[in-house]
Specification:
The protein contains 7 helices and 15 strands. It is α+β, with helices and mostly antiparallel strands. The protein folds into 2 domains: 115 residues, Aminotransferase class 4, branched-chain amino acid transferase, N-terminal domain (D-amino Acid Aminotransferase, Chain A, domain 1, 2-Layer Sandwich); 152 residues, D-amino Acid Aminotransferase, Chain A, domain 2. The longest helix is centred in the C-terminal third of the chain and has 19 residues. The structure holds pyridoxal-5'-phosphate. The site of pyridoxal-5'-phosphate has 14 residues, from α5 and β13.
Length: 283
């Protein structure tokens, strides 16, 4: 049984009811966030909540809770669901109103949160990916619930026997359908710079920080499709996947076709960060 949250009240997830006039349902007019919880401790809670605030501001939805309100909500939800290992999902929409594209007046946002349990060790299995054109809109930096492009491309990946689609826009790599991408090649370790065409991933940012602290050169630079195809190593990152090596791209092996030495090292740094988080040494 999962305890969820809707507009100020904690309830069983299966008892939650949302209006069919909710603009999240009618227009995908809303934003979301996913925060992993390891042994009851939230992973980079402030960074996630800051990104939620940024997404809300970008689509002009008022943040009715504020940072302290969000902290209190997520901590209570984790506790009510027994701590441990969870993925918290938060969603805010513009609220329920008669269907009309323009913003409705005097309507309160819908604030929803739920959680699911996750493995304490996801084992980061290697995955296969395909390359696809980035068919999404031009504000991918907003963590919007309008994910149809991502959904269609992820299904194309699955239909091709792969687990992720890595997207190309104007000849350069943007990101995966639900992941950021790191590439090791002749030019060292790189990831695309932040822009309106990618989501600024919290895991991505942490990885850059961990590389910096370990004196590993990691540059934020554009990566061409040819560089992606010729990479020695490719990794995808996200809050729920962590850091996962891509061992086949469009059916061809990436490097030696097995997780590479750079991934082994950075994966080790990430797992060490998680251990420190669980001990309460970092957040
Ligand atoms: C499109 C997209 N890019 C990147 C990411 C990775 O972001 P994070 O590391 O914050 O989970 C996600 C996560 O869901 C995503 O949906």
């Amino acid at each position: 049984m999962t305890v969820a949250y809707l507009n100020g009240e904690f309830q069983q997830l299966e008892d939650i009811r949302i209006s069919p006039l909710d603009r999240g349902f009618l227009f995908a007019d809303g934003v979301y966030e996913v925060i992993p919880v390891y042994s009851g401790r939230l992973f980079r809670a402030d960074a996630h909540l800051q990104r939620l605030e940024r997404s809300l501001a970008a689509i002009r939805i008022e943040d009715s809770l504020g940072r302290d309100g969000w902290h209190a909500l997520v901590e209570e939800l984790v506790e009510r669901n027994g701590g441990g290992y969870q993925a918290l999902y938060l969603q805010v929409t513009r609220g329920a109103a008669p269907r009309d594209h323009a913003f409705p007046a005097g309507v309160s946002p819908t604030v929803f949160a739920m959680t699911r349990t996750i493995d304490s060790d996801p084992h980061s299995p290697a995955l296969h990916a395909v390359i696809r054109p980035d068919i999404r809109w031009s504000r991918c930096d907003i963590k919007s619930v309008a994910l149809l492009g991502n959904v269609l491309l992820r299904q194309e990946a699955q239909d091709a026997g792969a687990a992720e689609a890595i997207m190309i826009r104007d000849g350069v790599l943007t990101e995966g359908t639900a992941t950021n991408v790191f590439v090791v090649g002749g030019d060292g370790l790189r990831t695309p710079p932040k822009s309106a065409h990618i989501l600024g991933g919290i895991t991505r940012d942490l990885l850059i920080e961990l590389c910096h602290d370990a004196d590993i050169d990691c540059r934020e630079e554009p990566i061409t499709e040819a560089e992606l195809r010729g990479a020695e190593e490719i990794w995808v990152t996200s809050s729920t996947k962590e850091v996962v090596p891509v061992v086949r791209l469009d059916g061809d092996p990436v490097g030696a076709g097995v997780p590479g030495p750079q991934w082994q090292r950075v994966h080790g740094l990430f797992q060490d960060f998680k251990r420190r988080l669980v001990r309460g040494d970092v957040d």
